[in-house]
Amino acid sequence: MSLLEVEAARPAGVEQSLAGALERLTVRSEALEDNPLGDSPVRPLLVYMPPDADDRRLPSVYFLQGFAGRVEEWLAADTIEQLDAMITAGECPPAILVFIDAFTSRGGSQFLNSSGCGRYLDYVCDEAVPFVDARYPTLAERDHRGLSGKSSGGYGALVLSMLRPELFGALASHAGDALFECCYQPVFPQAARQLRSQFTGSWQRFEERIAQPDFNWRDCAALFAESHADSLRGMRRIYLDAGRSDEFFLDLGAQALSDEFTRLGVEHSLELFDGNHDGVNERMPRSACELVRALQ
């Protein structure tokens, strides 16, 4: 499998305010060709380079967006600008930051290989990582490569780190999906009501509606850890957090993960803060810096 650049790299929209450089790439994924949903294998890829990056090889951190998120949203948020400012001020060691797009016409992929969505784990691990390592001055070893994600992206950071421990040496999961009986099961009756009231109970009408470009996904309502305990124990840094008022009860999921990690002897930190699901956004720059310090 390979990733092919299909357009020359160009500066992204926030580059004028950065001390470093942010490239917007357009790539074509072999892994995503002929995916079951018919989504395009052509994807945007954002890569941040700190000032004077060409002088040395650097650790890298890959950022995974939440459900229904698109990679362009990193441009609208100030995550990149904050990290650039922290690196420039010496508050964060320099690193190469990579922003992955795994959006699907169903909202997201959970960053896994799926017969329903496509091979998004392969896209990240077997295509994006070697592509970035070949093109940029990374320290191309797992001990210098990390993952950071929020919500579904936090789940992706956890699962990819466990499934591909040879690639990733640190992770940050911000309100990552966990304890599914709390975060997903209560939504099922709400979804059934919405299907009845907005789509006359027709799943086909729902499918037709979400295929339209103006559809807004945001309007829709530890056994695994144990089997990968050795991989988790080998991580250089594991950071978990969630808001105490998370609408999807992912604070309970983060606590359950933390309890399981403690039982398994996995070093990690857990922070429960006063806030809701959206409150994780402003916390990502600080956790990313913690990963970079551990990955130097």
What is the helix tally? 11
Q: Would you count the extended β strands for me?
A: 11
CATH domain topology: Rossmann fold
Fraction in beta strands: 15-25%
Structure overview:
The chain is of the alpha/beta class and 296 residues long. Helix content is 35%, strand content 21%. The chain contains 11 helices and 11 strands. The strands form 2 sheets. A 9-stranded mixed β-sheet has the order 1-2-3-5-4-8-9-10-11, sandwiched between helices. The relative contact order is 0.14.
Features:
globular, 296 residues, Rossmann fold, alpha/beta
Short description, anyone?
The protein has 296 residues and is an alpha/beta fold. It has helices at residues 73-76, 79-88, 120-135, 152-163, 180-183, 187-199, 203-210, 223-227, 229-233, 250-264, 284-295, and strands spanning 3-11, 21-29, 42-49, 60-64, 96-100, 113-114, 118-119, 145-150, 170-174, 237-243, 269-273.
Q: What's the structural blueprint in terms of helices and strands?
A:
Blueprint: E1 3-11, E2 21-29, E3 42-49, E4 60-64, H1 73-76, H2 79-88, E5 96-100, E6 113-114, E7 118-119, H3 120-135, E8 145-150, H4 152-163, E9 170-174, H5 180-183, H6 187-199, H7 203-210, H8 223-227, H9 229-233, E10 237-243, H10 250-264, E11 269-273, H11 284-295
Parallel strand pairs: 4-5, 4-8, 8-9, 9-10, 10-11
Antiparallel strand pairs: 1-2, 2-3, 3-5, 6-7
